[in-house]
User: Fold this.
Amino acid sequence: MSTPATEIRPHGPGSVPSLTPGRRGSVMLTTTGADTPQALANTLPWVDAFEADCGIELHTAETALYALAPVEHLATTCTPRDPEDKAVGVSHYLDAILTAGAWKVRGKDPQAWAAEYRRALEQAPAGTLCTVWDVFPRR
Assistant:
């Protein structure tokens, strides 16, 4: 069983090489809570920590919640049904993923990143909320 992200002190990933000045980036956070509002509130310190420690200066006033959904929904609609399918799905839109209090950042291999995204969804406990935040690196 994974440790909920809210039990670990929020921190940033240190560096997100795929973030590019002047280009929107996206970050997926998974968290749990008694209900959706609580789970969403649990993500806010992590978003703040990401902004403070992602290796690039961001327009923090422009950071915005883009999407939220229960992990069960994403696991059935946003991942290939065939485990042998190497499709990258929606993972190529994400620059970083927070799951169980640990950051993963996109590298150069799209299939490896897609596998990391699928693993984040598959290993999340039932009731986990996934949020996607848009971040805006300064030029």
The chain has one domain: 5-9+23-135. Residues 36-52 form the longest helix (17 residues). The longest strand covers residues 25-31. The CA atoms of residues 44 and 127 lie 18 Å apart.
